[in-house]
Amino acid sequence: MDDRTFRNAMGKFATGVTVITTEVDGDIHGMTANAFMSVSLNPKLVLVSIGEKAKMLEKIKKSSTYAVNILAEDQKDLSMAFAGQLQEKPPIQFGRVAGVPVLENALANIVCRVYDQHVAGDHTLFIGEVLDIVMREGQPLIFFGGRYGKVVSE
Ligand code: FAD
Questions:
Q1: How far away, in angstroms, is 79 Cα from ligand 1 center?
Q2: Which of 12, 13, 70, 77 could form a disulfide with 108 if both were Cys (CB 3.0 to 4.6 A apart)?
Q3: Closest by Cα among 91, 132, 103, 124 to 30
Q4: 126 lines ligand 1 (CB under 6 A)
């Protein structure tokens, strides 16, 4: 099977969009990711999948803590910025939850400590134990078929 077929099929699965944030030696690093899922309620675990070429991979290994910031519908510019797709970045406001840098105004900041990690092909799956959560009201940014969208209510 060719890569395009695989990518196109995965793109049929609509997701939200997150930005993962972490900090190493005082430097905050962010990366857009939609490979995110809830794993377990007891203990509370979530999963992100990070590509082997992403700088984020080593950053999380070093810091052991990170936040998954679920983006709101008006934060497409942040998704593009943290995917390296914008020349001119929008103003980025980092806050702190449990000492970990987070994106202010995201729908949710989910702060995690690495619980387990597995290399799977060209990605590493990080399972994070949830340390703290902050939530805000709003609608999610959606990613489907390689495009951004919004939830349309009937
Ligand atoms: P870089 O490419 O260096 O950083 C990403 C961008 O964020 C750069 O423009 C950088 O300048 C900016 N940035 C980082 N920190 C800061 C800061 N403190 N202040 C301001 N700007 C900052 N890849 C995956 O591995 N897994 C996924 O699940 C995944 N899902 C994606 C979903 C979508 C919708 C998109 C668009 C991309 C996705 N990617 C995913 C690809 C990933 O976001 C990019 O490959 C990204 O560039 C990799 O980031 P990096 O850690 O290598 O760092």
A1: 8
A2: 70
A3: 103
A4: no
pLDDT in tens, 102-140: 999 999 999 999 999 999 999 999 999 999 999 999 999
What is the helix (H) or strand (E) element at residue 4, kind and residue range?
Answer: helix 3-10
Question: Which atom of ligand 1 lies closest to the CA of 123?
Answer: 25
Per-residue confidence (pLDDT) for residue 49, from 0 to 100: 98
- Among all chains, which residue has been given the structure tokens 């983006």? 71
Task: Specify the ligand 1 atom closest to the Cα of 32.
Answer: 43
Sign of CA pseudo-dihedral 21, 32, 109, 103: positive
Per-residue pLDDT tens digits for 66-112: 999 999 999 999 999 999 999 998 889 899 999 999 999 999 999 99
- How far is 131 from 70, CA to CA, in rounded Å? 16
Full-model pTM: 0.97
Q: What is the pLDDT of residue 136?
A: 98
> What is the rounded distance in angstroms from the CA atom of residue 63 to the CA atom of residue 58?
9
